[in-house]
Each structure stands twice: as structure tokens, then as C-alpha cells.
Amino acid sequence: MIVRLGRYTVIYLATLAALLVIGLVMTMRLEMAPPSGLSVLLPPLVGAIIEGQRLARSEIEKIVVADAWRAAAAMTVIALVVDAAVLVVAQFLPGPREILIALSPAFFVFSGITLALLVLLANRYGLTFAFNNERKRKTGR
What we know:
With 141 residues, the chain is mainly α.
């Protein structure tokens, strides 16, 4: 595997925690919530960018397209497991539980597939974008 999945997981969780704190502060102080899509795309993008930069600093000269997709798929599985764990924890909170009970199973399936595709694309884009930019910076172009 060309990426370190443990490191990606820690970065993903740290980004989620930071977004939670920022959201709470914004809600309490500014009386506004951060954009909801931010919590979907930012954690995988940050994790993939950091891993892409690490890869560019290693001895790898070029990312093979198949390896990039394979790494993005593995990172997507990690993100979906973390998101599923967050959903399970949310079921024990009174407010989210009521919302989750009201939603249909078809909504969860559609949302899960959409989330998986968005996270996969964010991981793939972040990985190759960061790798190419860090490689250019390293070589001085």
C-alpha cells in the first residue's frame, strides 16, 4: 500500500474533531452553522493531501493511476467506517436519534452511496494533486 492508512485515520479524526469544535463555536458565538458539506469533503481531502505530500517526499517518482485509485479506495473505506461509527454514536443522542428514526432506509442507502462516491473522488483528487504539487516544489519547477 502506498499510503499509511493509520496516519490517514488519525488525520481524518483530527479534522472531524476540529470541525466539531469550530461548528460549536460558530453556533454559540456567531449564531450560524458552518456549511454542512464541509464536514463531508474536508476530512478526506485533508488526509489525502497530507498523504500525497508524504508520498512525493519519498522515493516514488510517479504515482501509477491504478495505485492511486487503489489507495483512494482504501482511504474511502476508512472514511466510511469512521462515518458509520459517528452515525452509531449519534443514535444515542436524543436530538439526532429522533431525526434518524424519521428517515427511511432508502435515504440511508442513497446517502451512503453518494457519500462514498464523493469521498472516493476527494481522496483521489487530493492524493494526486498534492503529490504533483509537492513533486514540482521538490524539483524546483
